């Protein structure tokens, strides 16, 4: 019950997102059916209607019995229409190069229930030919009944047949019905489009939105960061546009961290992701700037000693930094860069060492974190992805909490589960997750300048 209720919103969301698949399916289905119908040979139908009655008897009883008798014989009369006794004279009259058996496929007979009437319908590729076939079939049926049917005492036919609705050439083709075929093709194409959209949704295991992240991760979602050009440009987005929607997203994350601090103070925050390219450095830099915006003293450490990115976002020189401090080549004050006009300091990665894991797990690293955590209100450590290398797991014990970044455009549910399991096995305290690059929520009114 819970699985179906949880999956229904996902499927509905898939239809809203992939509506164009349904539309394209309907359009292609309608166009394909219309094209196929246009290639078919047009067929025309003409109908001749006949009425059968008994000629003998004048009393009401006789007439009633005669009507019952006529109705009981209607099926026999219908078989005559489709037999050679009627169709061979039709072939001879119209000079048709065919046989009664083949011609019978173009003739259909219908008898309305509880009536003494018959409808003879002929189908042909020419309107006039269809009318001629229906008319000739009706006339020769009357001739056969007059000659071969039962007779009265005076030798006249006991059954009188009258044509009350003569066949006329139709104005429009009966088959193929292009309008109907296009409609049915559109319906079928639309259904295929719906099935395709739902299949894509079922096969797409990416963590697309906050609801899926809650369901897949289990840990609290501390915030959602929407796609924004400034974030993609690797800049301090919250500093460049402090009134933007992006800035508001990071303010919400900062507020969520405040509630996470209720049980125990979080001064050292480790930021990581499952796989490369999920935006952990972007989140680290802008979260640090957001905390500094409240006049907190913040130190951002780039502990990704394999593919450092923090210095690009901060616009500083990253050649001297954490590695040099740990190797005691320079002091912390020399390696640290202060962001002008803020309370944010940045410690870049420095030179990339041949043994990153050994340096990060050294006693000197523990001493450094202990020293800076007593000096700054917040220390944010940007670390490599958990599923690529073990650096984040090795650093987790010296941090007060871990923030896991999830990319809405690429993170799979299985990778998210594996990342969280890896961190928990390493002794990490996972404070929650942040969904990055989420689809922006459209509002009728905008309170923020779009970034």
Give a verbal description of the structure.
- This protein is 48% helix and 16% strand.
- It has 451 residues and is of the alpha/beta class.
- The longest helix has 26 residues, at 178-203.
- The strands form 2 sheets. It has an 8-stranded mixed β-sheet, sandwiched between helices. Strands 2-3-1-4 form a 4-stranded antiparallel β-sheet.
- The protein has helices spanning 2-17, 19-39, 60-81, 84-94, 100-103, 127-148, 178-203, 210-217, 229-232, 237-240, 245-260, 280-292, 310-314, 322-326, 332-335, 356-360, 363-375, 391-395, 413-425; strands at 44-54, 107-110, 117-124, 159-165, 221-226, 268-273, 298-302, 337-338, 344-347, 378-382, 401-407, 430-438.
- It has 3 domains: 2-40 and 177-203, no CATH class; 44-165, 2-Layer Sandwich (Alpha-Beta Plaits), CATH 3.30.70.1130; 210-438, Rossmann fold (3-Layer(aba) Sandwich), CATH 3.40.50.
- Helix 1 packs across helix 7 (178-203), helix 2 runs antiparallel to helix 7 and helix 4 (84-94) crosses helix 6.
- The two termini are 41 Å apart.
């Amino acid at each position: 019950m819970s699985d179906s209720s949880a999956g229904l919103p996902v499927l509905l969301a898939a239809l809203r997102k992939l509506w164009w698949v349904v539309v394209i399916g309907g359009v292609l289905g309608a166009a394909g059916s219309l094209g196929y119908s246009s290639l078919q040979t047009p067929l025309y139908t003409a109908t001749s209607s006949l009425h059968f009655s008994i000629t003998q008897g004048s009393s009401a009883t006789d007439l009633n019995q005669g009507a019952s008798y006529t109705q009981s014989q209607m099926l026999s009369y219908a078989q005559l229409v489709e037999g050679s006794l009627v169709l061979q004279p039709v072939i001879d009259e119209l000079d048709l190069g065919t046989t009664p058996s083949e011609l019978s496929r173009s003739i259909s007979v219908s008898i309305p229930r509880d009536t003494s009437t018959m409808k003879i319908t002929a189908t042909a590729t020419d309107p006039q030919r269809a009318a001629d076939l229906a008319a000739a079939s009706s006339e020769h049926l009357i001739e056969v009944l007059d000659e071969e049917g039962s007779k009265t005492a005076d030798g006249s036919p006991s059954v009188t047949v009258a044509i009350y609705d003569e066949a006329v050439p139709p104005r429009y083709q009966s088959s193929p019905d292009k309008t109907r075929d296009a409609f049915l093709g559109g319906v079928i194409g639309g259904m295929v489009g719906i099935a395709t959209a739902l299949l894509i949704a079922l096969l797409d295991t990416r963590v697309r939105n906050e609801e899926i992240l809650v369901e897949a991760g289990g840990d609290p979602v501390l915030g959602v960061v929407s796609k924004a050009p400034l974030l993609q440009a690797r800049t301090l987005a919250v500093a460049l546009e402090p009134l933007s929607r992006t800035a508001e997203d990071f303010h919400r994350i900062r507020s969520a961290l405040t509630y996470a601090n209720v049980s125990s103070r979080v001064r050292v925050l480790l930021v990581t992701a499952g796989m490369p390219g999920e935006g952990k450095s972007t989140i680290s830099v802008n979260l640090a700037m957001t905390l500094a915006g409240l006049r907190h003293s913040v130190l951002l450490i780039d502990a990704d000693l394999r593919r450092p990115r923090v210095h690009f976002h901060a616009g500083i020189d990253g050649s001297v930094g954490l590695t040099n401090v740990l190797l005691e080549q320079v002091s912390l004050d020399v390696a640290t860069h202060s962001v002008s006009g803020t309370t944010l300091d940045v410690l870049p990665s420095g030179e990339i060492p041949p043994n990153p894991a050994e340096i990060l797990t050294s006693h000197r690293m523990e001493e450094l974190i202990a020293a800076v955590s007593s000096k700054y209100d917040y220390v944010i450590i940007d670390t490599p992805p958990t599923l690529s290398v073990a650096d984040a797991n090795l650093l987790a014990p010296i941090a007060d909490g871990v923030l896991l970044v999830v990319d809405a455009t690429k993170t799979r549910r299985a990778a998210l589960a594996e990342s969280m399991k890896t961190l928990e096995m390493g002794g990490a305290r996972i404070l929650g997750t942040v969904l990055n690059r989420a689809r922006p929520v459209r509002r009728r009114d905008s309170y923020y300048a779009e970034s």
